[in-house]
Task: structure prediction
Amino acid sequence: MGGDWHASSSSSSPGTILPIAVVPIDFEEEVVAPIISSYNYHIRPLLDAIDRLRLLQVMKEGIQLPTIVVVGDQSSGKSSVLESLAGIHLPRGQGICTRVPLIMRLQNQDTTEPELFLEYSGKTVPVEEDHIADAISLATDEIAGSGKGISNTPLTLVVKKNGVPDLTMVDLPGITRVPVHGQPANIYEQVTEMIMEYIKPEESIILNVLSATVDFSTCESIRMSQQVDRRGQRTLAVVTKADKSPEGLLEKVSSNDVNIGLGYVCVRNRVGDESFEEARKEEEKLFETHPLLSKMDKSIVGIPVLAEMLVQVQANIISKCLPKIVRNIDEKLSANVKKLEKMPKILSTHAEAMSAFVQIIGSAKESLRKILLSGESDEYPDDKKMHGSARLVEMFDKFSNELRKCVENERTGDFLIEEINVLEEAKGIELPNFLSHSAFLRIHQGKIDRIKSMPIDCVEQTWEYIESVVIAILTRLSENYPQLKHATTRAAKSSISKMKEQSMNRVLEILQMERLTDYTCDPDYMSEWGKLLSQQQKFMGDLKFYHINSTTIEGWGTIQIGHLRENSETILQLAFDLKARMKAYWNIVLRRMVDTMALLLKFNVYNLVTKEMDEIFMELMAVDGGKSIERILEESPGVAGKRETLKSSIGLLRESKEIVAQITDRIASYGH
Ligand code: GDP
Ligand code: MG
Result:
């Protein structure tokens, strides 16, 4: 077995938070000691907890986990670095090999034989070390299809092996500018988007893999990490292929032109068919003996140093992030629990459906009562449309104003002409100075006919408004039950249209009644008529003076009289009297109409809220002897789906909470 660890220099460990036990190297015996320390003993449970959270996919709940993300341009040596750290073979070579995020969990385990697993699509598959490359390819094909496309569903590779560092890293597809044959045309955008998603969170440590053979500042991975971590505070660089390009490497890393905040580690990976032991020895030798490379400080060279640094960086970021994770889990959990509580209950029995139905009806009636009858607007404080009684008053005021202002009230042009014409037509064989009742009625009926569209429109608009309010309420209350919404709104519409027809008939009746009979007991009629008639003398007098063409009559204002002179005195007197009666009576008619309409509409609304709604609901309940209620209250698939999502999210967060609770207890117990 191979791939065990050399612990090289221990002198400088950046950002050490716990002491690291360094085991001396003993080349002679060919037994290399792994990096195992009290450090691992403390950090391991934390890492395990984070990894369990990762496996639960809490990231999907928007909870970021501390993660070491490996980025690098294509062929920079990413897979080789991971290989070196894990001591296993990974698919290496041309084209895109990593097509899905590969989560590598390295776990130090005290056994002779390494244990490898792949976790994906909810299964855990043991893998043999020799077949790891094939197994990864197969799993990748299963996740991302067998083409060359990429997917962001991760694949986890667990490596339990003696001597590996306890590390969890995510390897991402390499960045390619030009799609190779078979790759989607937007492969570059897809890959960069995925990388960004992983490196953006503050919780991510960016492990930037750079090849010594290139100018770092031209690396795409540097450009990307600088976008999210400008000062490089969470970026660590691994420089590969030190063996291929040793010239100027020391200068390159010490000048730090590309702002790497956490430092550089230069390495030499396995080349060709070397075993991992051979590779480690070659690397060791390279940095000991090479004329240029040996000048580099031992604290920045070699895979073991890299491992050590990563373990520390990981410990730092985990302990830094833990409180926030705990907080996030708590917040998300309680938010989701609240959301679930607010969701409608599942109605599994007839009794439950019935009680939900009764409750919805109760709420609907209560809302209608508040909105249309008592004028309470607490349910819709900001929705003016739903301030029902105010809107109804508004509509009614408009109606009564229009009625009062309409021209029928003030026909001052062609003064008395209509009256004279009608009187002429109504003439009978009788004494000439009797005022004909039929003439009065004819004029009166003409007036009624000319204004009748106003009360009709008023009824029309009022019902249209009431219907919109009723529908809005029913829609709100039954939004989770599409069938119920359908059934109630349909029933409400048909019953409202019935009620509207009734009140329309009533209004038409009122208009007919007004047409048929001229009657009032209101003393205003007599007094108003008297007032107008008292001016008849003055009017007749003014007509005698040929130079006077207009006169003022209180109640009618200034009127033209020139056109009346050819008429006989008798007919003029009769016409004046007729017009005076007409005016006095019309006032009464208008007032009566406004009052009656007000009472009628209020009465209709009252009936709707107190009686008609009940009938609508009773009717619904009676369908199929009430059996249909369950069907009517079947919730929409959307609601059911949302509830399921919330439930599973809550389950997951509870589990996560449990996991973090266990480790925080543990931390408390060792006095961290
Ligand atoms: P990736 O595309 O970033 O995953 O890169 P790979 O790990 O597949 O490496 C690309 C090529 O570089 C492979 O042929 C590796 O063998 C080679 N390579 C990686 N690291 C080193 C190194 O340190 N020295 C040498 N000489 N070759 C390396
Ligand atoms: Mg690779």
User: Anything to note?
Assistant: The domain at 350-634 is CATH 1.20.120.1240 (Four Helix Bundle (Hemerythrin (Met), subunit A)). The chain has three domains: 20-24+48-321, 350-634, 638-672. Residues 72, 74-80, 92-93, 174, 240-241, 243-244, 268-269, 271 surround guanosine-5'-diphosphate (ligand 1) (CB under 6 Å).
